[in-house]
Amino acid sequence: MPSFDIVSETDMQEMTNAVNQVDKEITTRYDFKGSNASIELGEDSITVVGDDINKLNVVTEILRAKLVRRKLEPSCLEYGDPEDASGSTKRQLITIKQGVSTDLAKKIVKLIKQEKMKVQASIQGDQVRVTGKKRDDLQAVMELTRGMDSDRPLSFTNFRD
Predict the structure, then answer these.
(1) pTM for the whole structure
(2) Are the C-beta atoms of 26 and 66 separated by less than 8 Å?
């Protein structure tokens, strides 16, 4: 019986490359000369430090541009509120969204059931497994989920025939 999984994964190697490019650009740009601006990649978050809100916003815009160039969706990032850091600088924590949240998974299953497609959708941890008798039904579900509005990029893996 054909099946596939709906997941939300971010390529962390590409994310590392994008953050390194941003860091390199910060060190070479003239408007950041003598500034305390920096960017650091953690396990599942990015920490951006800037002298003020404007420098913080410029660094996050550069990050967005680098992500687009590396074919990563900027919607995989969740921006926290800027907060005061030591030495009169500002810090912002950016969380990298991984996995399909429970609310989004329920929304996907509900959408599939509303369309009355001849497939079964089940939530399995941080992914949604879709099974059906025909490959065409599964491809229709893929098109349906591509068209839906979600807070993170969705991808399809583990397609079995």
Answers:
(1) 0.80
(2) no
Q: Where are the domains of the chain?
A: 3-8+99-160, 12-96
Pairing of strands 38-41, 127-132: unpaired
Contact 51, 36 (CB under 8 A): yes
* Whether domain 12-96 has CATH 3.40.30.10: no
Q: Domain 3-8+99-160, what architecture?
A: 2-Layer Sandwich (3.30)
Read off the pLDDT of residues 42-67 as tens digits, 9 standing for 90 and up.
888 999 998 888 889 999 999 999 99
